[in-house]
Amino acid sequence: MQKSGPLLDEAVTVGDDRYAIVAARWHAEIMEALIGGAVETLTARGAVTSQVDLYRVPGSFELPLACEQAALTGRYAAVIALGTVIQGETPHHDYINMSVAQGLMRAGQNSGVPVLFGVLTCHTMQQALDRAGGAAGNKGSEAALAAIEMVNLLRIIEQD
After folding, report:
1. Closest to 143 (Cα-Cα) out of 22, 10, 26, 6
2. 81, 114 Cβ separation under 8 angstroms
3. I need a surface site. Which of 59, 81, 91, 100 has the fewest CB within 10 A?
């Protein structure tokens, strides 16, 4: 029997839960849009500013450590990682993207706290802008919504 639908029910709210957003500073314009989308989604689901903490890291490569440390504090129901890696002239983006994805996955598994991947891995600046509130939506908002869904799903699993 299915315990959760494919989409989060509109009635599900943040409640008393606290959420951490860990965001890279690199590509400031894009990052501000992603952070804004995440915060807007959390507040639309009932969060107040005191329930959302924002931590900034230099770049996306630093996200996994900061996210894991935030998750391990026990203060947060979920941690939302936001970053942007844009392909350049060298293959550095491949190494960064893979390391960040694996590190964020491990942070969630090690802590038992959902750590959501809101990292843009784009070929161009335009693709990043499109995903930070442009034509392709706002991936910060999507990561926040996924965080709320995972928190609620884990509660269902714990109760079964």
Report:
1. 22
2. no
3. 91
Among candidates 150, 144, 146, which has minimal Cα distance to 111?
150
Q: Is 92 tagged catalytic?
A: yes
Provide the pLDDT for residue 128: 94
Expressed as residue numbers, the domain containing 52 is 26-64+72-155
CA distance 47 to 59: 27
Structure confidence by residue, pLDDT tens digits, 111-121? 999 999 999 99
Q: What is the CATH number of the domain that holds 39?
A: 3.40.50.960
Phi, psi of 132 (to 5 degrees): -115, 45
Residue closest to 6 by CA, chosen among 120, 159, 158, 145: 145
Confirm whether pTM is higher than 0.70.
yes
Total domains in the fold of the chain? 1
* pLDDT, tens digit, 9 for 90 and up, residues 33-74: 999 999 999 999 999 999 999 999 999 999 999 999 999 999
Q: What is the pLDDT of residue 4?
A: 53
